[in-house]
Write a structure and sequence with these properties.
heterodimer; A: about 110 residues; mainly beta; six-stranded mixed sheet; four-stranded antiparallel sheet; B: about 120 residues; seven-stranded mixed sheet
Chain lengths: ~110, ~120
């Protein structure tokens, strides 16, 4: 089973700046990597797939990069509505495991 | 509009059973795999069980193997999760999620709103 490790556990940033979230896979997952956003009391929502393709309705402030074992989700011009927990998930093989999440707090 | 709607959660005693349902709408249900993902209070997401679009292949996390059974009725656009021998550690919000493909090995492009399962005496 591929283990997904996210860092940092919590990220606290000011509005208007950039946030960088990291995700590492224990073995190569090619570009089969997705990101989800979960706000308090809500179900997760797909943000990114194929490591760098934004899902429907996701603003261009969100971008993804990486391949193999190292991936990054970058959110520029942070807004209060971006406050959430972000999970990465590989889908290169079954089980398609998820990371433990990064909590993004907007100061 | 693609939608998933879970139901069937509730409070049950340890050792008891529940059957969760996930009703789909807005897409050709029989073309896509479905996965159940749970989230214990204050914790992260954990996949529980999945099945292929046809329903012929099923998958279970080790933590629920032998106790949970996943199935689907493509004529009713519904997936079920039969949960037996429930334990306190099964307490969580249970989400069903639609895979992008006909097999579970895909990202989840739609999630339901979740149903809460509480296992307590």
């Amino acid at each position: 089973e591929i283990v997904m490790t996210q860092s940092p556990a919590t990220l606290s940033v000011s509005p208007g700046v950039r946030a960088t979230l990291s995700c590492r896979a224990s073995q190569s997952v090619s570009s089969n990597l997705a990101w989800y956003q979960q706000k308090p009391g809500q179900a997760p929502r797909l943000v990114m797939y194929g490591a760098s393709t934004r899902a429907t309705g996701i603003p261009a402030r969100f971008s993804g990069s990486g391949s193999g074992t190292e991936f990054t989700l970058t959110i520029t011009s942070l807004q209060s509505e971006d406050s959430a927990v972000y999970y990465c998930q590989h889908y290169n093989a079954w089980p398609a495991t998820l990371g433990q999440g990064t909590r993004l707090e907007i100061k | 509009d693609v939608r998933l709607l879970e139901s069937g959660g509730g409070l049950v005693q340890p050792g008891g059973s529940l059957r969760l349902s996930c009703a789909a709408s807005g897409f050709t249900f029989s073309d896509y795999a479905i996965t159940w993902v749970r989230q214990a209070p204050g914790k992260g997401l954990e996949w529980v069980s999945a099945l292929t679009a046809s329903g012929r292949n099923t998958y279970y996390a080790d933590s629920v193997k032998g106790r949970f059974t996943i199935s689907r009725d493509n004529s009713r656009d519904t997936v079920y999760l039969q949960m037996d021998s429930l334990r306190a550690e099964d307490s969580a919000i249970y989400y069903c999620a639609k895979s992008f493909w006909d097999v579970p090995r895909g990202y989840f492009d739609c999630w339901g709103q979740g149903t809460l399962v509480s296992v307590s005496s």
